[in-house]
Amino acid sequence: xxxxxxxxxxxxxxxxxxxxxxxxxxxxxxxxxxxxxxxxxxxxxxxxxxxxxxxxxxxxxxxxxxxxxxxxxx
Amino acid sequence: xxxxxxxxxxxxxxxxxxxxxxxxxxxxxxxxxxxxxxxxxxxxxxxxxxxxxxxxxxxxxxxxxxxxxxxxxxxxxxxxxxxxxxxxxxxxxxxxxxxxxxxxxxxxxxxxxxxxxxxxxxxxxxxxxxxxxxxxxxxxxxxxxxxxxxxxxxxxxxxxxxxxxxxxxxxxxxxxxxxxxxxxxxxxxxxxxxxxxxxxxxxxxxxxxxxxxxxxxxxxxxxxxxxxxxxxxxxxxxxxxxxxxxxxx
Lengths: 74, 249
Description:
Number of strands of chain B: 7
Number of helices of chain A: 4
Oligomer: heterodimer
Radius of gyration of chain B: 18 Å
Mean pLDDT of chain A: 95
Largest interface: A-B, 9 and 8 residues
Number of strands of chain A: 0
Strand content of chain B: 5-15%
Strand content of chain A: under 5%
Shape of chain A: globular
Distance between the termini of chain B: 33 Å
Strand order of the largest sheet of chain B: 3-2-1-4-5-6-7
Order of helices and strands of chain A: HHHH
Helix content of chain A: 40-55%
Low-confidence stretches of chain A: none
Mean pLDDT of chain B: 97
Low-confidence stretches of chain B: none
């Protein structure tokens, strides 16, 4: 599954509404617990383990894409 | 999870069930840190098991807990396994009509029982779990509950604390499962310990034993075996493992 599809499924947001500037503050359902679900979904999908710093930094779509790109995931 | 080589923190580990669990895990190669308020019992434990790390700590004092756990985490990093065992059995009905003085359950005793049995679990777990998450450790947390969690007459405070522990077990398992941290509880029934004998007369204890389908008290090893089972089975989380010989209150 590509990352946008995964974000759309986990956050319950249509893909066309996802933008790099979209952040936790703008999505009601994207609270700290949903963030853990999102991280687990990313780790399971791409078979990676993110660091605590990555997890803390991945609070908007742009940051998620940037950090995953650093891991070779586009 | 294989316990060999793992960093294990056990609260209330100087005596009784906690000591039994500490000894069993130590024998399997775990690196055990024993927290307890009883310094002389800790010294006894350490003299017999010098490879165990023993730390004196009042688990009801949040500052003491923070200080000791911060020192431990700085020295050795996050724990792989946390066993919240520290507890205090207390018998007192809500109302004792036969009392010649105060008939109502003591507020002081209520707070003390909740502090030792429930608040201490929260104090220790919040700090240990933060370190586990920050270090991305796939850890295991085991809370020691009791058969009394379902409501044992004369043990309102203790029963409430243990029911609270089971609620925390299920809640934290849901919160932390996505990050690979497992949380489960063990709920012993009547176990052959000094605390069991101290909490009731031998006559009352015989009545309880007669009510147990297996007709005997459990052993501390029965409980520590259950703890080990939870550690070793990577698919157990959010559940309470009852070790009670079939007794239902």
